[in-house]
Design goal:
Blueprint (H helix, E strand, L loop, with lengths): L2 H10 L5 H28 L19 H17 L2 H10 L5 H13 L5 H18 L11 H8 L15 H12 L3 H7 L1 H12 L6 H38 L4 E2 L10 E2 H11 L9 H22 L28 H6 L3 E2 L20 E2 L7 H5 L29 H7 L12 H16 L8 E6 L2 E6 H8 L4 H26 L3 H26 L3 H22 L1
Helix pairs in contact: 2-3, 2-5, 4-6, 5-6, 6-11, 7-11, 8-10, 8-11, 11-12, 11-13, 11-17, 17-19, 18-19, 19-20, 19-21, 20-21
């Protein structure tokens, strides 16, 4: 085309009308108002560049053109600066996350013409978060298909495609292998968590195919659910072994292989196993991440060894090798530094060893396990296996904000400050089993944010939980959460006993549940009275409502 023809073509292009300009500005400002609060939190929390507006939200009215352009430039810069580990902490820390805000961020990242591996990991995390946030509650109880995921994602990916791609088939192989595992050691030994990452690394720009995005979102969600199932299986095995040791009169366990003492009290090991179930969000390091998984598996080995249990031979699933290259991808996009920085995490606290000085104890709140990094702890403790990479899907991005336990005081000091309750501090085996079942349901499939009530199923019984009761299971730690969890579990046992009586006419289970409920009512009333004395109105009200629900359940079951 000659220079004259080029000029003529440019002249013929219609200029946008004032109405189109106004609509474009309005649309850009609406998106900016959705994204700005998330980026404002990131930049202030991680001490990055000062945002152009010193408020967490933008006004509804579009500002003057200079400020408008400044804000849009700042958002563009933040798009390139956001790292997945920071984004994950943001999603954990905010009590309320609006689906429309996630949609806006995802849309911005997908529009980028030159996407980096950091963009890819951010999109991967955000889509999994969005699905967990927006999926219907009844979808959690059935097998989730690509069509189910595509249906939910169409509000953020208009062309979401449920077609199964041949090169994404290994994702299903990993999920099938996870179902065969009985614990985390098999997962780590088979390096199952690395397979999805390898496929994602090899996918290049095919990752952004609408069908691939649907497949990876489903994979992330189901992998996280399987991971927590196996995590709880290990924790349950530890607690059952500790109960058996107590029955035999054993009070200490040699846990040096877990980085604890040679005479670790069983009470402290039980605290560790209970604390593992409580998600906590804060900063994390690769070393603390590996150490945390090592500690869990080593504690189980130590406890079972004390019982005389011979470790069973691992049945490691064997998978076909993930294709080395599904598509071409720039070498720079696969840099190990970015890969390590954006590797996934799981939340779980590390409890200081009994007698360890609080200031030197490590109470980490999140686990970041890169696949190619060996920590110093692995070198000094060769008997403890080193876990592998944990993908972004394992982050409970739907869980509300969780407070970090006070490592300066330590968990033993906290327990010593508790008032003596009317009932035993250790829940009965029936109550503990019920707690575990509720915990797994809520953590594996977090309820939609903002929902006032959530439902869990125990056998044939369905139990409604208020938002503060859900938070007691999935986020908030401390004595109040312990009390609320016990109240919910006792109510669930009563409901289960009532359903059993209706089905078979046998009232034995209901009688036992009501007797346990009466004991818990005494305990809860004691805790309500103490909350009132401490002028903790919110705790007193929430405990009081949960206690009344337990009482109402017992009265209804008897009528």
């Amino acid at each position: 085309m000659s220079g004259l023809e080029e000029k003529t073509a440019l002249v013929k292009q219609p200029l946008p009308s004032l109405g189109e300009k106004a609509e474009s500005i309005s649309s850009a400002w609406a998106e900016a108002r959705l994204v700005y609060p998330l980026y404002f939190y990131l930049t202030t929390h991680f001490h990055q560049e000062i945002p152009p507006v010193h408020e967490p939200t933008l006004p509804a009215t579009c500002p003057a053109s200079d400020l408008f352009e400044c804000i849009l430039r700042w958002l563009d810069e933040m798009d390139t600066r956001v790292r997945t580990n920071q984004l994950r902490q943001l999603l954990h820390s905010l009590k309320e996350i609006k689906p429309e805000s996630l949609r806006a961020v995802i849309a911005r990242l997908l529009r980028r013409s030159e996407k980096t591996s950091a963009d890819r990991d951010n999109i991967d995390l955000l889509l999994a978060t969005y699905f967990a946030l927006c999926a219907p509650e009844d979808l959690y109880s059935c097998e989730i298909t690509l069509a189910d995921v595509a249906q939910v994602l169409r509000s953020v990916l208009v062309d979401a495609d449920p077609t199964e791609l041949e090169w994404c088939v290994p994702l299903n192989q990993v999920l099938d292998a996870m179902k065969q595992c009985q614990g985390l050691r098999e997962v780590f030994s088979a390096k199952l968590l690395e397979k999805g990452r390898e496929l994602k690394d090899a996918s290049g720009f095919m990752f952004y195919d609408p069908a691939a995005l649907v497949a990876f979102t489903r994979f992330n969600f189901l992998l996280r659910r399987s991971f927590f199932r196996l995590l709880h299986a290990d924790l349950r095995a530890i607690r059952e072994s500790l109960t058996e040791l107590e029955r035999r009169g054993v009070a200490i366990v040699d846990c040096r292989s877990a980085g604890l003492s040679a005479e670790e009290p069983i009470v402290h090991l039980r605290d560790i196993s209970l604390a593992w179930r409580q998600p906590i969000s804060s900063d994390y390091t690769a070393e603390s991440a590996n150490r945390t998984f090592e500690q869990l598996l080593a504690i189980r080995d130590a406890v079972e060894r004390t019982l005389g249990i011979v470790p069973a031979q691992l049945k490691i699933p064997i998978l076909k090798t993930v294709p080395a290259s599904c598509a071409e991808e720039p070498t720079a996009a696969r840099g190990s530094a970015v890969r390590q920085e954006n590797s996934g995490l799981v939340n779980a606290p590390v409890i200081p060893a009994h007698g360890q000085k609080p200031e030197t104890a490590s109470l980490t709140s999140s686990i970041n396990v890169p696949r190619d990094v060996e920590t110093s702890s692995a070198k000094t403790q060769p008997k403890v296996p080193s876990p592998t990479f944990v993908p972004a899907a394992l982050a409970s991005t739907s869980a509300p904000r969780a407070e970090v336990l006070d490592s300066a005081k330590g968990i033993n000091e906290k327990k010593s400050q508790r008032p003596t309750p009317p009932t035993s501090g250790v829940p009965s085996p029936q109550l503990e089993e019920c707690l575990e079942s509720i915990w797994e349901q809520l953590i594996e499939a977090p309820p939609t944010r903002g929902r006032s009530m959530s439902t869990v199923t125990i056998g044939a019984a369905r139990i409604l939980l208020s938002n503060w009761e859900v938070n007691a299971f999935v986020s908030e730690g401390g004595q109040l959460s312990d009390d609320l969890r016990r109240a919910v579990a006792a109510r669930a046992l009563v409901a289960l006993g009532s359903e059993e009586q209706k089905r078979s006419g046998n009232s034995a289970k209901l009688d036992a549940a009501v007797a346990l409920g009466r004991d818990e009512m005494k305990y809860l009333q004691h805790r309500v009275d103490e909350a009132q004395r401490m002028k903790n109105t919110e705790a007193a009200v929430n405990l009081g409502i949960s206690a009344r629900r337990l009482l109402s359940a017992m009265e209804s079951a008897r009528n």
